[in-house]
Amino acid sequence: MLSTVHHHRALLLHRRPRLILPPKTLRLLTPKCLFTSQALTHHPPPPTDATAAATSSSPPTSQILSIRHALLSRQLTAVEITESYLTRLRAAEPRVRSFLHVTEEENVFRAAEEVDRKIERNEEVGLLAGVLVGVKDNICTADMPSTAGSRVLEGYKPPFDATAVRKVRELGGILVGKTNLDEFGMGSTTEGSAFQVTANPWDESCVPGGSSGGSAAAVSARQCVVSLGSDTGGSVRQPASFCGVVGLKPTYGRVSRYGLVAYASSLDVIGCFGTSVADAGVLLHAISGHDTFDATSSKREVPDFTSLFTSSNNLKPRPLQGLRVGIIRETLEDGVDAAVISSIRAAASHLEDLGCSVTEVSLPSFSLGLPAYYVLASSESSSNLSRYDGVRYGQQVAADELTSLYGGSRARGFGAEVKRRILMGTYALSAGYYDAYYKRAQQVRTLVKKSFKAALDENDILISPAAPSAAYKIGEKKNDPLAMYAGDIMTVSIHLSVNVNLAGLPALVLPCGFAEGGRAGLPIGLQMIGPAFDEVWNKFSA
Amino acid sequence: MASLLYRVLQIRPFRICLSPLITKKTGVFYVTSKCLQTRSLAQEKPQSQAKVSTRNHDKGLDKIFQNYEAVIGIETHVQLSTLTKAFCGCAYNYGSQPNTNICPVCMGLPGALPVLNSKVIEFAVKLGLALNCKLSLNSKFDRKQYFYPDLPKGYQISQFDIPIATNGYIDLDLPVELGGGHRRFGITRVHMEEDAGKLLHSEGGTYSQVDLNRAGVPLLEIVSEPDMRNGIEAAEYGAELQRLVRYLGVSNGNMQEGSLRCDVNISVRPIGQSEFGTKVEIKNLNSFSSISRAIDYEIARQAELHSQGLGDQIVQETRLWEEGAQKTVTMRKKEGLSDYRYFPEPDLQEVILTEEYVASIHDSLPELPEMKRKRYEQLGLSMQDVIFLANDVNVADFFDATLAMGAEAKLAANWIMGDVAAYMKNEKVSISEIKLTPNELAQLIDSIKSGTISGKIGKEVPSSSLAALSRNHMTSSSLPTGIYHNILTITDPAEIEKIIDKVLAANPKQIEQYRGGKTKLQGFFAGQVMKESKGKANPGLLNKILLEKLNAKS
């Protein structure tokens, strides 16, 4: 039998031959190029359906749209599609270990049968009908455990669906399981899970990144079509980069956080993984919008992202003519691997070929972002994690009196990284330190926002690497947690991401090249940052 | 919500036993359980505006009192009577079965988020304006963090450095029987926050249970300046706040249900000394009279220690008022300041008020107790009348409505404070429950005044006839005939009985026949009695008493 990775690569090569490409063929990975595949325009319009117009004009490089087309044209049934994904899931799972919980098969098939029945009766089905969706385990699901990767919530089943999950289900999406993560989203390797370590499908000795490592690996290994993750300081974008998939961090407030287990409330967003920009866009569209259960969710209208994609037929030779692209100088300095820098530069020159004007921009406050992020995120997490006291739910340690109950439950329930951040946050919020840390960090945040705003006034989008390197070895940065922590602070590793969270901006990560490693090299991601509520690909609409 | 609840119930029963985790070893728990017991024994009648009672001071203490001065400030928590809780859609009904008004938000489940109930802002602005405060057009919520089993999120959503209202005052008039006089007490701040749940301690003290019904119920915390000097002033301050929230309709102000809770800070210093003495906090004050008595006890205790040169034995601590023993006892000593690690609540937007919004609320405010009292005073009423009438917003409304129908103020006040009040007291009803309308009262007063009903009859109308008056189904259109009818009807059972006795005594034969089985004769007797009373006997009473008499074995 082939190894998981082989299997995975074989799949990729079979289904999407153009996904794995050397850096120079970047053009195929840019949004414009997603629609150049000629085969796609040959599909006849779906026989029935309200969204026929949308589907016919959008080329189905999107797996979601392909599935939709196959279902509505009666080429495949949802049960057949489900069967093929479940087969891959089962085959890959022992080596990749993306999932903390896989939905009972009969439940998955029951949902698939329901979709088939509806199609048989010519009833309208949602845009995600028959689409298998993985959900990060810090997003609440009513019929499955939701542990956030922590012992403290081992066995906990929420009584409600997160708003994003509810919307996915309402549109016919089928939840295939709960994906692994660093405990409460605190980490960037998924080694911080209390339950298991997830492997990178491109090289199983490497980490998938984190904290949404399970969601990224599951999509990369085609264990599901798309998945939901969460991004507090790069937790969608960095694993997307490591696993060679598209990762989308929406604007803060675009997607309801109701049901997302809080890590740092003012930074947390639910994000999307897919194998194409279109899939990430369709999923984002499905889960976006104001929610009366989240006071921080935006009332801004949600544009129909999918209608913004243009058929390749309509594209001019220089489709991106006039688009101003700023390449962030601070993200291409010391601490970033040469392969990453060259991939990004190649991407930039390709964008120029497509008609963009590319200039270097400087974000002077960039280096301040990381310490500010750590102060704010750990402060908020120290507060958000107070509820895990063992009294109402989750693991409880028997004790003679209250303080020992609290202490015991929390000592046993939380992992080392979580404890470290709670301690840091508690310290930063303590009387006498508040002004020096928390308040100052908020001031820095304002500066970061301003400097992004200035850069985005001059440019339509900003680009940078999604991570300073490709995926590294499992255990490489875990052996000494303190060193890893210090390493994080010393390198620019999460500088690249956290500044975007501080500013609340949307960002998209696309595979743009490969570094050495694995059998075919390890993927490198390009980050595109747009203005608030202008999720990046809007710029690529005609 | 119901299905959610059901699900949670399946996951983990609500009967959360911390057994044997929370034992009475910890002082706080011991105290809380005491507190609950004492609360259930509290005597205050719901919805009654409690009056501050006087206390006879010990003569010796009075002497000590003369040399010392108390400085008193009060923190009051008012539970708002919004339809739903502060941050979720749950209702709150006092006395519901434990854990029946809860949802993922007020239980603090992972992933649940608070969403502010806009009524909370409206009520806070109302009270802020009524307390003459400066409103913060930009305020925010903060998290106050501490661990306790009744606090499901591990933090309380509150307001820290920017409360919604600051720097106001409250005016009040002390009751005449307590010495009288006008007072103005400063208000430091008013802020919004959420209530915590309740711990229920088992009989044996081996385990405790958590009831989260109250968790997330909106509160306004009102902090006074340290402007009060004795128990009466403090209690009257509390009573005036209660009047205010009831006038505004923002809370039922009921102390026994915990809708209005006062914590008192008190220090005592020798007169002439400029720095404050050591501050002591008193909790578990379930009525205004207990506020007054607890403070006077505490002043006496501290003054006595000072006078014996033992002032250093007064330590910064929280003391509990024990209703049974009528004294304060140590609950916990302060071990340095607790650090609540406040920071801005990231799950909620800032609270931004527009000038127009504040102005519209200002314009919608009802006439407040102080304004009412001033107006009544200008009507020429005595201070005693003024305080009585303005005490209960419903009584004041009744009085005002009677005036609006043209009644003379003094006469209307006399009727309401006299017969109406006596009737309400006897029947244990509130003014909104009696059938007498302000219109009827005004017409009655007018009839007496104009002589349609002679002053004599008017004067003879006993309060019992008012009772009948209010119980009878009279419509305004039947007046004044209705009034005549009722006033001229004999409704006094004793008087009817007298007439019946007279009739029975005059007809011994018929009684014998009746008791022999000729019960139809009842009609005969009734006719005789009615005749004797010149048609004025109340027929219902007549028949009731007559039957009793006839059927009694003589």
Major sheet summary line of chain A: 11 strands, mixed
Query: Oligomeric form of this entry?
Result: heterodimer
Would you list the SSEs of chain A in sequence order as H and E? HHHHHEHEHEHEHEEHEHEHHHHEHHEE
Low-confidence stretches of chain B: 1-48, 53-57, 459-465, 470-486
Question: Summary?
Answer:
Chain A is an alpha/beta fold and 542 residues long. Helix content of chain A is 38%, strand content 12%. Chain A has a domain of 350 residues: Amidase signature (AS) enzymes (Alpha-Beta Complex).
Describe this structure in words.
Chain A: It catalyses: L-glutamyl-tRNA(Gln) + L-glutamine + ATP + H2O = L-glutaminyl-tRNA(Gln) + L-glutamate + ADP + phosphate + H(+). Chain A: It comes from Carnegiea gigantea. Chain A: It is found in: Mitochondrion; Plastid, Chloroplast stroma. The complex is a heterodimer of chains A (542) and B (554). With 542 residues, chain A is α/β, with parallel strands linked by helices. Chain A has a domain at 4-315 and 480-517: Amidase signature (AS) enzymes (Alpha-Beta Complex). Chain A has helices at residues 4-15, 31-34, 52-57, 63-72, 78-96, 105-120, 163-170, 213-220, 237-243, 277-287, 338-353, 366-384, 402-413, 416-429, 435-458, 481-490, 495-503, and strands at 99-102, 132-136, 174-179, 226-231, 246-249, 269-274, 324-328, 357-361, 461-465, 507-515, 522-529. In chain A, α12 crosses α17. Chain A is globular and about 65 Å long. Chain A starts with a helix and ends in a 13-residue tail after the last strand. The relative contact order of chain A is 0.14. Chain B has 554 residues and is of the alpha+beta class. In chain B, the strands form four sheets. In chain B, strands 2-6-7-10-1-11-12-13-14 form a nine-stranded mixed sheet. In chain B, strands 5-4-15 form a three-stranded antiparallel sheet, with no helix packed on it. Chain B has a two-stranded antiparallel ribbon with strand order 3-16. Chain B has three domains: 2-352, no CATH class; 357-488, no CATH class; 493-551, Arc Repressor Mutant, subunit A (Orthogonal Bundle), CATH 1.10.10. Chain B has helices spanning 2-11, 27-41, 59-67, 104-107, 118-130, 231-248, 288-307, 355-364, 369-378, 383-391, 393-404, 409-427, 438-450, 455-460, 463-471, 481-488, 493-506, 508-515, 521-532, 539-551, and strands spanning 68-79, 134-135, 138-139, 142-145, 155-158, 165-173, 182-194, 198-201, 208-211, 218-224, 260-270, 280-285, 317-322, 327-333, 343-344, 351-352. The chains are: A alpha/beta (542), B alpha+beta (554). At the A-B interface, α12 and α13 of A face α1 of B.
